[in-house]
């Protein structure tokens, strides 16, 4: 979950998850790593970019189709995490499903 | 640029900007705040969510249409910032223009 993902040519899908954490860890870090690991093995997963700065975090995951997003949403272990998220980890979040239409990459010439 | 944006009902557009900073400030912080301030005054601007954790940052801005995104891209002061970005502030970035199709909000009951 480090750095910029080299996604394929659009169109593909992005899930933008913005969240505000509650105080304390409550098993969050371990579960977060586990979820990234599990998601990476899902069919249609294209990558994930994530940043957390204290309270606010943004995680963007990329997928080949809405069907793949639906399958990940319904994954049993992910559902357990979603429930824990609402009960303990997040004071607020937004989740947006988007179709990526255009992209551009830049790298500084060394 | 704090917290989760209460965007209107989809469809609308999101620009996902993921970036890796170079070392040092080089006037970045001042310009970043100025750009958020300017963008907020643009026609069709719906809000912005941003997080930076050392090297990696993700900024998602929300817009009512592709036309508004284009106008912001071509804003003179923003173009100066874009040039500085490529010349000094970013070692790498990705920029993705997306159509938001679905959204969901959650808030913990106090």
From TrEMBL, chains A, B:
It holds the Pfam family ABM. The keyword Cell membrane does not apply. The keyword Magnesium does not apply. Coiled coil: none annotated. Residues 15-83 form the ABM domain. Keywords: Monooxygenase, Oxidoreductase. One of its GO terms (molecular function) is monooxygenase activity. InterPro entries: ABM_dom, Dimeric_a/b-barrel, Jasmonate_Hydroxylase-like. This is Heme-degrading monooxygenase HmoA. It comes from Croceifilum oryzae. The lineage of its organism: Bacteria, Bacillati, Bacillota, Bacilli, Bacillales.
């Amino acid at each position: 979950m480090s750095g910029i993902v080299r996604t394929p040519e659009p169109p593909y899908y992005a899930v933008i998850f913005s969240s505000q954490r509650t105080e304390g860890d409550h098993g969050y870090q371990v579960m977060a790593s586990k979820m990234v690991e599990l998601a990476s093995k899902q069919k249609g997963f294209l990558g994930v970019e994530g940043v957390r700065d204290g309270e606010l975090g943004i995680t963007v995951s990329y997928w080949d189709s809405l069907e793949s997003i639906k399958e990940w949403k319904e994954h049993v272990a992910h559902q357990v995490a979603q429930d824990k998220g609402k009960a303990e980890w997040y004071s607020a979040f937004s989740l947006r499903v988007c179709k990526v239409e255009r992209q551009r990459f830049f790298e500084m010439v060394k």
